[in-house]
Amino acid sequence: FIGNAFDVSTNTLSYFRNTFEGNYYDRYEGYDLDRDGYGDLPYRPVSFIAFLFEKYPLTLILYESFLARLLDAMEKLIPLLNPEALVDKKPLMVKP
């Protein structure tokens, strides 16, 4: 997942059939203390702002705005819309 505006978007309940583990994300900001090549923190590819943009297309005018960045920062502190099935528990640290 390199250079995407949004890594994952979902509008279905069948997302639980997919596996999100061992992928590389250029947006991942974790660390690898045990040096196994995988991030020690899980990565949540679905963001609240992506959900808003999908559900309410007119909110796309906020893309790259201060408000969108603020919501994204808040999402990292308090995840609002992150189904547990859409979490990569072992994100790659280095691009394959």
Q: Could you walk me through the main structural features you see in this protein, from its secondary elements to its overall organization?
A:
- The structure is a single chain.
- The chain has about 100 residues and is mainly α.
- It folds into 2 domains: about 40 residues, no CATH class; about 35 residues, no CATH class.
- About 20% of the residues lie in helices and about 0% in strands.
- The chain is built from 2 helices and no strands.
- The longest helix has 12 residues.
- It is elongated.
- The N and C termini lie close together (about 10 Å).
- The relative contact order is 0.28.
- The model has no long low-confidence stretch (mean pLDDT about 75).
Features:
mainly alpha; single chain; 2 helices; 2 domains
Topology:
Blueprint: H1 48-55, H2 66-77
Task: Report helical residue fraction.
Answer: 10-25%
> How many helical elements?
2
Q: What form results from the Cα inertia axes?
A: elongated
Radius of gyration: 14 Å
> Approximately what portion of the residues adopt beta-strand conformation?
under 5%
Strand runs, count: 0
Count up the domains: 2
Would you list the SSEs in sequence order as H and E? HH
Which regions contain 5 or more consecutive residues with pLDDT less than 50?
none
Helix-strand makeup class: mainly alpha
Mean pLDDT: 77
The span between the termini is 11 Å
Q: What kind of sheet is the major sheet?
A: none
